Amino acid sequence: MNKYWALKLVLEKQSITKAAQIMGYSQPAVSQMLTSLEQELGFPLLSKQRFLVFPNSGCQS
User: Fold this and answer.
1) Distance linking the first and last C-alpha atoms of the chain
2) Which of 6, 22, 32, 57 suits 38 as a labelling partner, its CA being 20 to 30 A distant?
3) 1: pLDDT confidence band, cut at 50, 70 and 90?
4) Dist CA 6 CA 2 (whole Å)
5) Average pLDDT, stretch 6-14?
6) Beta bridge partners of 55
7) Mean pLDDT of the chain
């Protein structure tokens, strides 16, 4: 459940760091949750551009 909450917050805030702060987790812990979710689903969910995070096409559908 936390993986999906992490994804939702990252997409809303466009930042893994900000999502981690809201969740009370470290940035590496949230990154690991997202990696785990990507492996579970079988495709990448996010693209990173400088300090912002955007949904990939697989995440948008």
Assistant:
1) 20
2) 22
3) confident
4) 6
5) 93
6) 46
7) 87
